[in-house]
Specification:
Elements lengths: L17 E6 L4 H11 L6 E5 L2 E7 L1 H20 L5 E2 L5 E3 L4 E3 L3 E4 L3 H4 L14 E5 L8 H7 L4 E5 L4 E7 L2 E5 L10 H11 L3 H17 L3
Parallel strand pairs: 8-9
Antiparallel strand pairs: 1-3, 2-3, 2-6, 4-7, 5-6, 7-8, 9-10, 10-11
Length: 220
Amino acid sequence: MVSTAPQFSIPRSALAGERRVTIHQLSWQGYQQIQQTLGERRSPRLAYDQGTLELTMPLEEHESFAEWIGLLIRILVEEFGLKMKSIGSTTLEYPNRERSVEPDNAYYIQNQAKVSGRRINFEQDPPPDLVVEIDITHTDIDKNRLYASIGVPEFWRFNGTALSIYQLQSQAYVEVEHSPTFPKVPKDKFYEFLQQASRDEVEASRALRAWVRQLQSGDV
């Protein structure tokens, strides 16, 4: 059974997270025109899902959580001896499905060897193995449906207090208690890391590495 009780102690009322602008009934060609007009050095992140375009301007809380979760994933990958290619907020674009999105973090881990050392072609290569989205405020884009439609195997969503982990099963997401990529790590450990990182990222990193090494040695 999946636990849904929030574990992070910053009150939701204290979190702003993002500013969003949504455009409905926009064609794929219209989305591409806006994308080209804004250029690659824009600050808003774009998500387009079959007629709906959302522009998200991340605020401090959003960016901090994205950095902390990214740091957590990197430490776990290193300590468990995995390999990884991080592509950050690279645009995942699928014109044939009229879907495009810029996640907060995206990673190739299981499929790292297939994309190592070169630029990814999303028309031919698999999607990222793990995608992270921070959605503290309401979004008009159904992120679960969007990422499931492009075949992302594992999807993490954090709303400022609770982390939801989804695994793709039969072309739809099922919420699970443990990450398929890091099955030995309880979700409580993720919350503990975020809490510590909000005070000191360096100390949080040291503590997490020490815990994983104890786990590997059988002392946990």
